[in-house]
Known about the structure:
- The chain is built from eleven helices and seven strands.
- It has a single domain, classed as Vaccinia Virus protein VP39 (Rossmann fold).
- It has a seven-stranded mixed beta sheet with strand order 3-2-1-4-5-7-6, with helices on both faces.
- The mean pLDDT is 95.
- Helix content is 41%, strand content 20%.
- It is globular and about 50 Å long.
- The longest helix has 13 residues, at 98-110.
- The structure holds S-adenosylmethionine (SAM).
- S-adenosylmethionine binds next to helix 1 and helix 5.
Amino acid sequence: xxxxxxxxxxHYLANGLTERLKTALSVLGxxxxxxxxxxxxxxxxxxxxxxxxxxxxxKLAGISAxxxxxxxxxxxxxxxxxxxxxxxxxxxxVDLSKPFVDAARYLTERTGLSGQxxxxxxxxxxxxxxxxxxxxxxxxxxxMNIADRAGLYREIRRVLKPGGRxxxxxxxxxxxxxxxxxxxxxxPDISFLMTATATREAIEQAGFHMLAFQDDSEAAKAWFSAxxxxxxxxxxxxxxxxxxxxxxxxxxxxxxxxxxxLGILTAVFEAASTNS
Length: 276
Ligand SMILES: C[S@@+](CC[C@H](N)C(=O)[O-])C[C@H]1O[C@@H](n2cnc3c(N)ncnc32)[C@H](O)[C@@H]1O
């Protein structure tokens, strides 16, 4: 593994996460009480716009019950559980962070979805799956941590069936340098932002045709402004996962969006039937 992967793993190390989650979730009921993906959304949807972003992306990608979906960089598994619970599809998550994967498995048991949703530890640049296995690949707020974008999109293309769909929701660069620390990188050495146009070109070069491409920066600005004016954050929240500085990381992302340093891209692509 590269130094970049080590830096990213350190950023998302989250030692003792499952124990912290157990404590934080006790406010929702006893350990044996089944939880819903909606109850967990304030802490397990680790991206701008929260659950609404996952719901919108799934709709745009046309997910249905008979599909096998891969969530690359699945975090603690909120998007994967939401898709399985909403559409009845099978979902596999893969993530670099072992504590995140352990926490994802724990939360999946708590939601009674372990029969439909599984998680593995692994790299997006070396996905531990056979070629052509999935109908849909989801990538939400992960590409910013990956320098080798050509390798990332090639690997996603490899595990998709011909005609399969790749749905991405990411932070993109706009004008000027972002303020750090940020939710995916406290320092710039593990942050690899690209513009929306460069992202599209890199994906198309990996053997995809574009189906949808939308700028969600204004919706994200409104979301962050509403968060700021609502005062106290919802409880439990992503501070349980990322630590007490999460409020500052999140504030900086909002500030960068409001200053047009960063933007939010939602896009869906179709895997070409050949790599040409
Ligand atoms: C901001 S979180 C997003 C998690 C999830 N997609 C979500 O939206 O809730 C970014 C995730 O990407 C994972 N990640 C970053 N680089 C990765 C890589 N090279 N391979 C696999 N996972 C990676 C991190 O471990 C982290 O869980």
